[in-house]
Amino acid sequence: MSSWLDYTINGLIVGNVYALVAVGLALIFGVSRLINFAQGSIYLVGAYIGWVAVVQLHTPLPLTIIVVAVAAAVVGLIIERFGLRPLQNSVRIAPLLATIGISFVLDQLVMLTFSPNPRALPSQLPDIRFQVGGGTIGPLDLLIAGVGLTSALLLFVFLRYTKLGWAVRATAQDRDAAMQMGVDVNRVNQAVFGIAAALGGVSGLLVGMYYNQIDTAMSLQATLKGVVAEVVGGAGNVPGAVIGSLLLGLVESYGVAMLGTSYRNLFAFLLLVVVLVLRPNGLFVSARQAPPEPLTGTFIAPSRPVHIPRWALLVAVAGFAILPLFPVSFYVLQTLINAWLLGMLALSLTLVAGTMGQVSLGHAALLAIGAYTSALLSLTLAVPVGLAVIGGGLMSAALGTLLISPSFRLRGHYVSIATLAIGEIVALVILNWESVTRGPIGISGIPPLSLFGYDLIGPTSIYWFSLAVMVVLALLQGRLLTSHLGRSFRAIRDDDIAARAYGLGLNRYKSLAFIFGGFAAGISGGIAAHLYSYINHETFNTQQSILALTVVILGGLGNVVGAILGSVALVGLPEVFRIAAEYRILIYGIVLLLLVRFRPQGLLGTV
Amino acid sequence: MSNIDRRSLVKGSLATMMAGAAFSRAAFAQSSEPILLGVSGPLTGPNAQYGTQWKQGFDLALDEIQAAGGINGRKLAYQFEDSQSDPRQSVAIAQKFVSDPRIVMELGDFSSPASMAASPIYQRGGLVQFGFTNSHPDFTKGGDFMWSTSVSQADEQPLLASYAVKRLGLKKLAVLHLNTDWGRTSRDYFVKAAKEYGAEIAVTEGYIAEERDFRSTLVRVRDANPDGLILISYYSDGALIARQARQVGLKQTMCAASSVYSPKFLELGGEAVENVHLGTRYFPEDPRPEVKKFIAGFKAKYGGQEPDAFNAYSYDAMNMAAAVLKIGGTDRRAIRDAFAKVKDVSSVIFGQATFDVESRRVKGAMNAELVVRKGQFALWDGKPT
């Protein structure tokens, strides 16, 4: 019994740690309706500034906190001014992508400056421990709790009783009305970003001290947990973020208590999905409040798509088809194979995100389902590889649609968050379901691709095969989009209320889009599994989901040719910059930012 | 002398001169163009730190190899391609290396998905894929072009189990392991050996690499009431677990796999890692000459920095590559065959490394029994803690 007291205390302590990140996220969401994926990077920056202050300048703790808060706030202001303000009148997805780009740039700059080796960040507090339950609590635990609660309290006071706070709330409620009433919306945004960044930086410092360890890979995990906590509490609600964080910490801790350590993150993401399904606005935002997302198609940039004549497409496909007949290196072919595989994934995503308006951040899960199904069918049931790949596609279509269906009633950013969670859940299930997936050991010895009894093992034959599959999928999708069904999809994207009023069954149409999309992604994953011959739970990760989304935005949402063009570009770019080694991700992040800034509708435009 | 004769003489001497020039140019090309190895590994992304450590070990080994006259008179060099340890990129890199005639052998990749996804391409392309961090049991089963100096966990874990159970007398164990292919395989070998030595496994807990908070895990461990904790961890997570174990009030003896051996383990763990026992493949105060040379060379080259396990792996790998190339020359197939022929190559990890032709791995890792005393790694003096 005493152990449950310990689990509770541990859950609250780690919940406090999450709260430090979540409060900053909530504040920004409250005002700009933006999930700031760069918050984890500011947290990272704060930790390293803290390291410089503590280890090299030997500042005392109060001064360290001030230095970190001010420096992080400056970073926040710079992000707001140069990264996000230019996107103010842009579509809602643009700033979201911009924050992803900013996080790449910040993480990479920190890594280049400080090297990727982890560093010790000594706590500057005395090492005394108080006995509580079977465990102990130290001064730093209390400080973290204090900072979390105090900042939430101060924010509450600030929002309720100061003039700037009123302006912030007014802007959050109705930006245009606030502007008409003379509120300087830019100044409000600036203030909010500065405060959120200062909080983020200080949280990085405190968490670094808490673990006596900082490293450049810590930002993504912080963002993920922060986002989960914030959305659970109710996006944009500061006290909600604190309570959501504590709840998340408790759920994780009890999850470990009941089932063991390897289920920890599974519980975190399941909590998120359950909350989103039961209370789409989060636990502490009342349902009566206006929905935090606009109802209709403003999430996606309207544009006139670039029309590419049919003969040009034919020439391009023919050109790529005869490419292996020329003396090109296998490296080029392999790079293009990667592009075709990514192209299939992008087709899938552009259908659900672009045509249907359901932005998915967990699309790699569909790859994983297809890959595991195909690998296991061919290995354990000796199904011929060609059929196994199709089986992978069907399984992704069925399971993917089933998993995603609870999120059909969500809108805008909430769909992205739910899909992100589902992506993580699939990876964690693969890791833990050992009797089927072989857990962390992964599946090795997957037979090579074959067709009618002939093994496709040379890069040339794999190239032709994957190109052909992609072209067929693209043609099918192109046909789909010009049909009545495609118009219905777009109608739902542009105005779901009007579409429903017109008699369209939203869930059925969304399911149809995910079935087709899941099939294409599953085929891609299946081919990849046979190409790699070894897969494990890390082969298809969040990074690939983000890459797929970037491709789709780059090409133009809903644009079939754009998805393929984007794939070739984004598989090619890092290869072109391969010489730049350590700077590759930095360049990638900057390219992403420039793209969002200057061509948010993508290269070929939204269809 | 006839005209014809003179002409032919001139012609002849010209031909000789040209041939001579051509010959000397060829000889020049031979000696100045270095023999090139391909390296596929992470320089960016979440595993970037390991790629950085590889480079340090490679560069140190290369300095020594060039100073000793290179490979039969030619220099040795490597081309490092950043894969981020991502299989999509490692397969493209594999095609790049296979189709580049200058590359004679490949080293890497870091993680199993990235390495084993590339294996079929190296195997078919007839280029040796020399993995030196690839402990996945199936890595060398990819084909006869896959060789590895990564210590098989089948070798290492029984040594750790023997240290914990037989030498330290721990009878009831809790095992915490990184839930990856490496951690999982290691755990299975450890548990099997520990049981054979008569220990009871009270609980095993697997955690993912991004995990930072272990307090609730440690409460589970505490409730299982073991008399020893076994950490199958890298140095960063090992240090985190040790710190939090002390914070939740666990005072049991801790034993860790050799992968925590790093000065960073002491730095990140602080007082909490005092008295942690670990087996290690090498140790700075180890009197073996190859270890002394490595440590001294490393500190001199990198401003007094202490090397750690990944530095040693990459240093050994480069030296092994050099030894193989000295026998195999620059022909890819001959290089593969040379792996079976190298004998007793001086190695930090193994002392003397010779491949087992069946498994294509090296057998017989050294294990020094260490303990952390006063913030330093020290040879264990046999006293219980």
UniProtKB/TrEMBL annotation, chain A:
Which UniProt keyword terms apply here?
Cell membrane, Membrane, Transmembrane, Transmembrane helix
**Got a GO cellular component term for this one?**
plasma membrane
Which InterPro entries does this UniProt record tie to the protein? ABC_transp_permease, LivM-like
Keyword Membrane included in the entry's annotation: yes
Q: How does it sit in the membrane?
A: Multi-pass membrane protein
List where this protein forms a coiled coil: none
Q: Which residues cross the membrane?
A: 12-35, 42-59, 65-84, 96-116, 136-159, 191-211, 231-251, 263-282, 311-333, 340-361, 381-402, 414-433, 462-481, 512-535, 547-573, 585-604
Q: Which GO terms describe its molecular function?
A: branched-chain amino acid transmembrane transporter activity
Q: What is this protein called?
A: Amino acid/amide ABC transporter membrane protein 1 (HAAT family) /amino acid/amide ABC transporter membrane protein 2 (HAAT family)
The organism encoding this protein is: Bradyrhizobium daqingense
Upper classification of the organism: Bacteria, Pseudomonadati, Pseudomonadota, Alphaproteobacteria, Hyphomicrobiales
Automatic annotation (TrEMBL), chain B:
Identify the InterPro entries for this entry: BCAA_transport, Leu-bd, Leu_Ile_Val-bd, Peripla_BP_I, TAT_signal
Where would one find the signal peptide in this protein?
1-29
Top-rank taxon of the source lineage equals Bacteria
Assigned keywords, A-Z: Amino-acid transport, Signal, Transport
- Residue ranges constituting the Leucine-binding protein domain according to the UniProt record: 35-366
Q: Looking at the Swiss-Prot or TrEMBL record, what is one Pfam family this protein matches?
A: Peripla_BP_6
Q: Which GO terms describe its biological process?
A: amino acid transport
The similarity annotation says: Belongs to the leucine-binding protein family.
Query: What is this protein identified as?
Result: Amino acid/amide ABC transporter substrate-binding protein (HAAT family)
